[in-house]
TrEMBL record:
It catalyses: a monocarboxylic acid amide + H2O = a monocarboxylate + NH4(+). PANTHER family: GLUTAMYL-TRNA(GLN) AMIDOTRANSFERASE SUBUNIT A, MITOCHONDRIAL (PTHR11895:SF7), TRANSAMIDASE (PTHR11895). This is amidase. It comes from Mycolicibacterium sarraceniae. Residues 77-492 form the Amidase domain. The lineage of its organism: Bacteria, Bacillati, Actinomycetota, Actinomycetes, Mycobacteriales. Transmembrane segments: none annotated. Signal peptide: none annotated. SUPFAM superfamilies: Amidase signature (AS) enzymes. Belongs to the amidase family. PROSITE patterns: AMIDASES (PS00571). Its EC number is 3.5.1.4. InterPro entries: Amidase, Amidase_CS, Amidase_dom, AS_sf.
Length: 512
C-alpha cells in the first residue's frame, strides 16, 4: 500500500499501519531501515485521517471511544506513547519511571477484554500516575532519595482506575515532598516545560502536567495540597481540576497535609476530567454522572470575577493574566451570564494562621515517616523543622477553625454561582531560579506567583483552571473557576461551555 492511500477495508482483515517518528504513514520497505510504530485498524473500520501525533493528543475519552469501536487497539496506543516518551522525554524529564513491560501486559489484557465485548470507561487507555501515589510493587519516591520499600498494594485511586480499565503507564516527576510550584530535585533533576524548556512546568504535579501537555500520556493523576494540580495545568495549557475534598480517595495517605491535599485529573479536555471523576469518585455523583453533567448547558449563571490576593501574601497580577480575566469576562457576557466584579472575604489570618501551619505540619509528618531522612534536601528539612515546632494541639485548634474560614470565604456564594480568579498571578519561574535557597526564602519568593490556589484547599471546595491563551513569552495562561462545595458539575458544565466557545485542546507545545 503506497503512503497516503486510503484502503477499502470494510470487508478486510485487521490492517497494520506503519507510522514514522514524524507521524507519516510508511510502506513496509521503509521499516527495514527506519524506526516505525504500529497503529492497528480493526475489521470493518475505515482508516481515519489521524496520524500518530493526532492520536497522542486525542485525549482519553476519544481514545476510549476508538478502542470500543475497534479503530484502535490497546497495545497500539500504548506503544505510541512508549515511543513518544523515549523520543521526547529526554528533554522534558516528565517521568520518573516508565513501566514499559508491565504496561504492555496490562494493555494486552485490556485488548482481550475489549475483544470479548467487555466495556469499562477507561478500558485500554493509558494514564500516568504522580509519584506521591502508590502503585503496587513500584517505589513511591516523593521526588527524593529518602524513600523506603515499595508498597505492596495500589493506592485506592489507582485501584479504581484499574477497575475502570486504565493501563498504568508510569510515575511522573515531583519536587521533593511535593512542597514547591516547580519540579526540580537533587535526586532526579529538573522537569522542563514543553512550551519553554528554560522554564518549569510548575508543581508539584509538574511531571504530570508536562507529560499530558507534550502528548506523552492522554491524562494524568495529580494531587493538589495548595495548587499542585492547578499551577502546572495553568503553565502547561491543560484543564486541571481540584475536586471537592474526599471526592477522590486518598487512601492509604488519608488526611494528607492535615486535610489540604486531594487527588484529581490533569487532562486535555473537560470531558476527560469528567470521565476521570466518574471512574474514581467516592462521593455521590450528579444524575447521569459527571460526563453527562459536563455536556449539559449550565444555564444563566451569576459569576463574580476577582483579582484580590489573600491578605499577607504579596504579589501582583501580570498583564497576560489580567488580559485573560478581561477576556473571559467578555466571553461570559456574550454567552448570556450575569458577570460582575466582587471579592471574596478572605480573613487576615487565613494564610499564616491556618493554611501554612497545616501544610508545614503535614510535611513534617510525611518526612518523619521516611527511613532515610538524612538524604533530604536542605530546604525540605527546613520546612519539616518548622512543622515540627507546631504542636498537635495547635493543629487541632487550626482545624477546628476551618468552618469559620469556609463560612467567610464561601459567603460570596450567597450571591454568585461561580467565582473566577486568575489561574496564577505570573508565569512560571526559570529552571534553577530558586537553587541554594532555604525553605522559607523559597516559599516567600514563589508564593507571589501562585497566590490564588491554597485558600480553596483550606475550605475544601472544588476549583478548576481553564486554559485561555499564551503570554508574551509563549507560555500558557489560564483562569481559575471556583465552585460551591461539592459542585464540580457546575464547574465542568461552565468549563465545557468555555471550551466549546474557545477551544484549547488543539494547541501543542514546541516540544511535543
Amino acid at each position: 500500500m503506497a503512503a497516503g492511500e486510503r484502503p477499502d477495508i470494510e470487508d478486510a482483515q485487521d490492517v497494520v499501519v506503519l507510522v514514522d517518528a514524524d507521524g507519516r504513514r510508511r510502506t513496509g520497505d521503509y521499516l527495514a531501515e527506519h524506526a516505525c510504530h504500529l497503529v492497528t485498524v480493526a475489521v470493518g473500520a475505515r482508516l481515519a485521517q489521524m496520524d500518530s501525533t493526532d492520536l497522542a493528543f486525542a485525549g482519553a475519552a476519544e481514545q476510549a471511544r476508538m478502542l470500543v469501536k475497534g479503530t484502535l487497539t490497546a497495545p497500539a496506543v500504548l506503544e505510541l506513547y512508549l515511543e513518544r516518551i523515549a523520543r521526547v522525554d529526554r528533554e522534558l524529564r516528565a517521568y520518573r519511571v516508565v513501566f514499559a513491560e508491565r504496561a504492555r501486559r496490562e494493555a494486552a489484557t485490556a485488548q482481550e477484554l475489549l475483544d470479548a465485548g467487555e466495556r469499562k470507561p477507561l478500558l485500554g487507555v493509558p494514564i500516568a500516575i504522580k509519584d506521591d501515589v502508590d502503585v503496587a510493587g513500584e517505589f513511591t519516591c516523593y521526588g527524593s532519595s529518602a524513600y523506603g520499600i515499595a508498597p505492596t498494594a495500589d493506592a485506592e485511586v489507582v485501584r479504581r482506575l484499574r477497575d475502570a480499565g486504565a493501563v498504568i503507564l508510569g510515575k511522573t516527576a515531583v519536587p521533593e515532598m511535593m512542597l514547591w510550584p516547580f519540579t526540580e530535585t537533587v535526586a532526579f533533576g529538573a522537569t522542563h516545560n514543553p512550551w519553554d524548556l528554560a522554564r518549569t512546568p510548575g508543581g508539584s504535579s509538574g511531571g504530570s502536567g508536562a507529560a499530558v501537555a507534550a502528548g506523552l500520556a492522554p491524562m494524568a493523576l495529580g494531587s493538589d495540597g495548595a495548587g499542585s494540580i492547578r499551577i502546572p495545568a495553568t503553565w502547561c495549557g491543560l484543564f486541571g481540576l481540584k475536586p471537592q475534598r474526599d471526592r477522590v480517595p486518598m487512601a492509604p495517605h488519608d488526611d494528607a497535609w492535615n486535610g489540604l491535599s486531594v487527588n484529581g485529573p490533569m487532562t486535555r479536555t473537560v470531558e476527560d476530567a469528567a470521565l476521570f471523576l466518574d471512574a474514581t469518585s467516592a462521593l455521590p455523583v450528579p444524575s447521569g454522572g459527571f460526563v453527562a453533567a459536563a455536556s449539559r448547558e449550565p444555564g444563566r449563571l451569576r459569576i463574580a470575577l476577582s483579582t484580590k490576593i489573600p491578605p499577607t501574601v504579596f504579589g501582583r497580577i501580570g498583564p497576560a493574566q489580567q488580559r485573560a480575566l478581561d477576556g473571559v469576562e467578555s466571553l461570559l457576557r456574550d454567552l448570556g451570564h450575569e458577570v460582575f466584579w466582587r471579592d471574596p472575604d478572605y480573613p487576615a489570618w487565613a494564610v499564616y494562621g491556618h493554611l501554612l501551619p497545616r501544610m508545614w505540619h503535614g510535611a513534617y509528618r510525611d518526612v518523619a515517616a521516611l527511613p532515610h531522612r538524612e538524604r533530604l534536601e536542605a530546604r525540605t528539612k527546613g520546612i519539616a523543622r518548622l512543622g515540627k515546632l507546631i504542636p498537635d494541639a495547635r493543629i487541632a485548634r487550626v482545624r477546628a477553625a476551618e468552618p469559620a474560614l469556609a463560612a467567610r470565604v464561601q459567603s460570596i456564594f450567597d450571591h454568585v454561582d461561580v467565582l473566577i480568579t486568575p489561574g496564577t498571578a505570573l508565569g512560571p519561574s526559570r529552571i534553577g531560579q530558586y537553587q541554594h535557597r532555604g525553605g522559607v526564602s523559597t516559599l516567600a519568593r514563589v508564593a507571589s506567583r501562585v497566590p490564588f490556589q491554597g485558600i480553596f484547599n483550606a475550605t475544601g471546595q472544588p476549583a478548576a483552571v481553564v486554559p485561555w491563551g499564551l503570554d508574551d513569552d509563549g507560555v500558557p495562561v489560564s483562569v481559575q473557576l471556583v465552585g460551591r462545595p461539592s459542585d464540580e458539575a457546575t464547574l465542568l458544565s461552565l468549563s465545557h461551555q468555555i471550551e466549546t466557545a474557545r477551544p484549547w485542546a488543539h494547541r501543542r507545545p514546541p516540544v511535543s
